[in-house]
């Protein structure tokens, strides 16, 4: 009996072998026709399912990374003043910043006021900080950081140095690799430079620190060299003294006057000859 079955199977195999042509049978279509007639749903292979799931996961990770990157990306608000331009800027917490010409100020609108109130600046600016003991205010320059709770002060940042002048309240001044911050109170000033590498408390008061803002120049028995220095800074010029007068000193107040009138008064008062040079802003 087994021999007869073997013979019949061999005959059928030879019959199929004689008539089969390579590529003539589409196995996927054959399966679909068979499954359709039998009511069978073809299952997705585990390998194909895993690849699809992995692709979806990578897509979700990509979107998540992009979302977090965009969410944490700073939203910088920047203000720039041209040379000679003065501008008042109100920060989101109502802190007022008076900016001198040729200065920049910026802050991240996304985080300002959340934990701390931080701004970055170059040039010269006068801050009237809205008091908030829970969220200190900090002004950063390239070399230093000034931190306060609520007070008024000026920061004068120049290449290689920064000077801080406190008008009211108290500030914490840190710079470079200084181990301890310096606390400055009303009327105090300090500076830091790359040259000295240390914070220096300034003992000599300069009544013209805020002249760019008040429009007033005050001199009280001031040496001529210091007078010329303040005039250069205020009018953005380079003044030359044509007369040798090393011991000359000036006592005078000028309220928002043009340079030629100021020089005329000084020259007549001290019997000297101060001559303005080229505008340093050009």
Automatic annotation (TrEMBL):
TM ranges: 49-69
Chain ranges of the Protein FecR C-terminal domain: 217-273
UniProt-listed Pfam families: FecR, FecR_C
InterPro entries cross-referenced by the UniProt entry: FecR, FecR_C, Ferrdict_sens_TM
GO molecular function: sigma factor antagonist activity
Superkingdom of origin organism: Bacteria
Protein's UniProt keywords contain Repeat: no
Domain FecR protein: start-end pairs: 79-171
Keyword line: Membrane, Transmembrane, Transmembrane helix
PANTHER family in the cross-refs: PERIPLASMIC SIGNAL SENSOR AND SIGMA FACTOR ACTIVATOR FECR-RELATED, PROTEIN FECR
Protein name: DUF4974 domain-containing protein
Organism: Parabacteroides acidifaciens
């Amino acid at each position: 009996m087994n021999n007869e079955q073997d013979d019949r199977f061999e005959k059928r195999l030879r019959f199929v072998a004689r008539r089969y042509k390579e590529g003539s049978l589409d196995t996927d279509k054959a399966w679909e026709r068979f499954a359709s007639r039998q009511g069978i749903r073809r299952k997705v292979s585990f390998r194909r399912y895993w690849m699809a799931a992995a692709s979806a996961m990578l897509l979700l990770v990509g979107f998540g990374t992009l979302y977090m990157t965009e969410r944490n990306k700073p939203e910088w608000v920047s203000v720039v003043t041209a040379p000679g331009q003065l501008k008042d800027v109100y920060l989101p917490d109502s802190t007022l910043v008076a900016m001198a010409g040729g200065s920049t100020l910026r802050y991240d609108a996304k985080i300002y006021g959340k934990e701390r109130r931080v701004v970055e600046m170059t040039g010269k600016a006068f801050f009237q900080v809205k008091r908030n003991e829970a969220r200190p205010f900090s002004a950063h320059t390239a070399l230093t950081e000034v931190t306060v709770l609520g007070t008024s002060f000026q920061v004068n940042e120049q290449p290689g140095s920064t000077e801080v002048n406190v008008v009211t309240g108290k500030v914490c001044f840190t710079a470079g690799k200084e181990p301890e911050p310096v606390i400055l109170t009303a009327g105090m000033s300090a500076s830091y430079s790359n040259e000295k590498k240390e914070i220096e408390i300034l003992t000599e008061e300069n009544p013209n620190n805020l002249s760019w803002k008040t429009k007033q120049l005050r001199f009280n028995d001031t040496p001529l060299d210091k007078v010329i220095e303040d005039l250069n800074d205020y009018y953005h010029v380079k003044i030359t003294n044509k007369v040798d007068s090393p011991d000359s000193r000036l006592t005078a107040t000028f309220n928002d006057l043009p340079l030629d009138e100021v020089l005329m008064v000084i020259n007549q008062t001290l019997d000297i000859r101060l001559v303005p040079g080229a505008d340093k802003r050009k």
